[in-house]
Amino acid sequence: MGNSSRKVFVSHASRDKDFVNRLVSDLAARGVSVWYDKLDVRLGDSIPGKINSGISEAKYFLIVLSLAAIKSKRVQEELNAALMRQVASASTFLLPVLIEDYEIGGKKSRPSVARSGAFKPRIYLPALDQIRQIFPHEF
Q1: Is 78 known to be catalytic?
Q2: Which of 9, 48, 89, 101 is 20 to 30 A (C-alpha) from 81?
Q3: From CA 136, how far away is CA 139, in angstroms rounded?
Q4: Which residue has the higher pLDDT, 4 or 125?
Q5: CATH architecture for the domain at 4-134
Q6: pLDDT greater than 70 at residue 74
Q7: Helices 17-29 and 121-134, interaxial angle, to 10°?
């Protein structure tokens, strides 16, 4: 899948797999090298080891945020590892993609891609292009 130092690590909740499958496919079609558990973790691999390697070798950490992701212990652990890496590198590394409204502590999120319209071209494609523009032309 290309140079691992150029990969975008994709963190997500299992419930969001349909959206993430489409996002990963569309990013790959646009030349973005993606680390995705479905593609990069094989039978017999140490899942925590592969995830830690994927995060440490990735150039960006894209987190698909939903209520399920916020409640997921695994997503929280991945985010904590990514936050530590971002602080240590003092550069932009985290790329949040909100796919549904949720409320935490009385504050409501504003999704960049609404779940109900995630696959509608007028909503999804502009958001996908916005995500792609974040990445340098090296991909």
Answers
A1: yes
A2: 101
A3: 7
A4: 125
A5: 3-Layer(aba) Sandwich (3.40)
A6: yes
A7: 60
